[in-house]
């Protein structure tokens, strides 16, 4: 039988005051209370960071669970809960434990940044595993959706002048409006930036690709091409605009698109409208975590139109086989350590 854990009451600001301080809604008197508490002991700063880290892990896990009702995940979730609980008891001080009980009622953690308060900064990295998609809330309230094989990194807390994140892969953002602290997405080692204040847009910037694609759904954004740390080119997008930056040619093309097609992956849908088959296979490659080996060059001249919702890879390939005069063979291989299984698809002319 597990023993019941008891936490002592600490002499410090009420947890609701700390929450308002973090949200930047505290009164001047409440701010002073927390400032004094932070300066009393360097450990108090660590406590705040521990709270954010633990809460962020818990909040992200709950978000994923709400969007995935598979029993397999529920089993994993229970294990994660045990892991987090043990980490909580072993690593977090009594101070953090008491504050966490009060802060856990909130849905998103925000950091209050002041010149006279030093809070240790850490880089948080979130990765969507191959073949999966992830949804998360950033500390400022911005919502991000990561496509398969994508990685998003950001500092905690954000810089007081800019909310900068780094993306490798594809992501859809619903950015919280804050004109005093613009939101910037940096891709391919800061080769290109997407600068916004509050808007919704999609960015596709896989490291191995020569094109960076940005689609604006609402609001407005600026795309900046960076050379030697300086902005060399800058273009403005309006809603329903899509910009494709060719890295090798150093050229940006802008044209109108149907944003529903561009962002359908968020809801597990694949929409193709008269798309060249090589592009179709590329999207399928990321979506299903498979590699395609096209055996006949003529296949690269084919075009395809179709919509798929929650379909297995074999179902999509069967439809392609009927409509595009191709044949295919799925091969399964194991990695050297025999733990990971990789699928590849050989595509042939029928």
UniProtKB/TrEMBL annotation:
Domain FecR protein: 125-221
Keyword entries, A-Z: Membrane, Transmembrane, Transmembrane helix
Molecular function via GO: sigma factor antagonist activity
Alphabetical list of InterPro entries matching this protein: FecR, FecR_C, Ferrdict_sens_TM
Transmembrane segments: 88-111
Keyword Membrane: yes
Residues in Protein FecR C-terminal domain copies: 269-332
Membrane listed as a keyword: yes
Name of the protein in its database record: FecR family protein
Organism listed in the record: Parabacteroides merdae
């Amino acid at each position: 039988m597990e023993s019941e854990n008891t936490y002592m009451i600490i002499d410090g600001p009420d947890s609701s005051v700390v929450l308002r301080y973090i949200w930047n809604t505290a009164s001047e008197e409440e701010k002073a209370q927390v400032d004094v508490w932070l300066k009393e002991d360097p450990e108090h700063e660590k406590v705040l960071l521990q709270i954010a880290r633990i809460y962020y892990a818990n909040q992200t896990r709950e978000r994923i669970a709400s969007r995935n009702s598979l029993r397999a995940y529920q089993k994993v979730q229970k294990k994660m809960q045990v892991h987090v609980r043990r980490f909580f008891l072993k690593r977090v001080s009594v101070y953090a434990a008491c504050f966490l009980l009060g802060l856990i009622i909130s849905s998103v953690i925000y950091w209050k940044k002041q010149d006279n308060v030093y809070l240790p900064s850490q880089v948080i990295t979130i990765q969507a595993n191959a073949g999966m998609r992830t949804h998360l809330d950033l500390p400022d309230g911005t919502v991000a959706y990561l496509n398969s094989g994508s990685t998003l990194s950001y500092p905690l807390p954000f810089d007081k002048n800019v909310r900068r994140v780094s993306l490798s892969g594809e992501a859809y953002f619903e950015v919280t409006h804050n004109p005093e602290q613009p939101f910037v997405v940096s891709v391919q080692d800061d080769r290109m930036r997407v600068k916004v204040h509050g808007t919704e847009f999609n960015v596709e910037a896989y490291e191995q690709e020569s094109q960076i694609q940005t689609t604006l759904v609402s609001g407005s954004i600026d795309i900046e091409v960076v050379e030697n740390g300086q902005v060399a080119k800058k273009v403005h997008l309006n809603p329903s605009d899509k910009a494709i930056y060719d890295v090798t040619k150093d050229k940006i093309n802008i044209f109108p698109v149907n944003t529903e097609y561009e962002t359908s992956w968020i809801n597990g849908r694949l929409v193709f409208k008269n798309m060249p088959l090589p592009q179709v296979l590329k999207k399928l490659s990321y979506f299903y975590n498979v590699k395609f080996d096209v055996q006949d060059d003529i296949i690269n001249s084919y075009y395809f139109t179709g919509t798929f919702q929650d379909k297995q890879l074999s179902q999509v390939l069967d439809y392609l086989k009927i409509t595009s005069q191709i044949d295919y063979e799925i091969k399964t291989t194991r990695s050297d350590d025999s733990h990971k299984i990789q699928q590849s698809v050989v595509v042939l002319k029928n």
